[in-house]
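Bench log, entry 3. Co-assembly request; chain sequences pasted below exactly as received.
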Amino acid sequence: MRCHDVATVLLESSPPWAPEIRVHLEGCEDCRALARGHASASGLRLPQPPPLAPVPREAVLREVRRRKVRRRIAAGAVASCCVGLLTWLSGPGAPSPEPHDFQEEHAEVFEPGTVPHPELGLRRAEGADDVDLDSLARLVREERGSLSWLVTEVRGYSRRDVVARDDTYKPFGTMAAWLRPPDSRALETPPFRTAVLSFDSQESLP
Amino acid sequence: MKGTVILEEPGNPARAAAAWDFDALLEAEQAVLLRLARRLVWDGEEARDLVQASLADAYEKRHSLKDAKAGPAWLRRILVSRAMGHLRRRRVWNVLREALDWGTPLALSPEEQFVGAEKWRALGHAVRALPAQQSTAFTLRYLEGLELDSIAEAMGIGRGTVRIHLYRALKKLKAEQALEGDSP
Ligand SMILES: [Zn+2]
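Structure output for the full assembly:
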């Protein structure tokens, strides 16, 4: 019998050993040590310390809730990073890709002429002091919540050379081309497009 | 029934049929889990934290348990998996502590201070120093008395791999002389 086979038998059973095992053990110090160790370990009887107090059901459910909150925070942080990345890639002073659709669709809120943040495609609502903040917030939420709108926006960003052609950078001439962030066309690479488009097609399902 | 969580899925008869009582399982198995956790990590406080985390895991995954009869083994698997992660982190932490020579020796756990437990102190230290899988296999086999198949199931590994971990654990414990003096 080989040591490997003897070790298998030793670990699977307990003494008294079969005659062929005993013969091997007599001539093999390694296997004898293993057999002694196995026998010693099998004979261990741990003392029982006083029992531990049980974990209350409420503590378990509290832990479950804590995990949910942690996951939500983590998801929020990831989403913020993505938005931050997109904002950075789009560069400062970039016009929104399709601001006209948004404004035309909600012309009742956006009044032409008064533009607090033209770079965001926003216009001041009628009567700056009596702005209907609730409806504005609702509209912003609705638009922000729309994944297809996000996809359209990403597509818009991914087709522009973000910084070098902005007016702000004109005085710097060709230097802007050297200093601009990485080319936003990276967003058009197949993995990114596949991921975003699959979301898009899921959302457009009935 | 007060405080009972029955898995019920309105409008989903397949899942409703597999309903079981989480609280009943919690009540029936908790003492066993606490004892097992304590033997796996050799520390009462750590064991309690482990059991709480494992029960939270179980609560979150409760829909994956289709057969209530498999509940105890299912809970044990969750606990063993958590315990191995814990043992791995603790081992890395102990190595770091020694490498950085922070000097303060680890306080004895209540298990090691337990009256009449002096002779287990050496064994406890030696088992705690083993790699997570070896110490887990050793504990389940020799301290909990599980068969190799149950150990394999609890650890999520093959029977042959369990044997390898046991073989290595026994060799190391013999080398540390942690098993001396208990020969029958
Ligand atoms: Zn041999």
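The domain at 1-108 of chain B is CATH 1.10.1740.10 (Rna Polymerase Sigma Factor; Chain: A). Chain B touches chain A at residues 3, 23, 26, 30-31, 34-35, 38-39, 44, 47-48, 51-53, 55-56, 59-60, 110-111, 114, 116-117, 120, 123, 138, 141-143, 148, 163, 166-167, 170-171, 173-174, 179-184 (CB under 8 Å).
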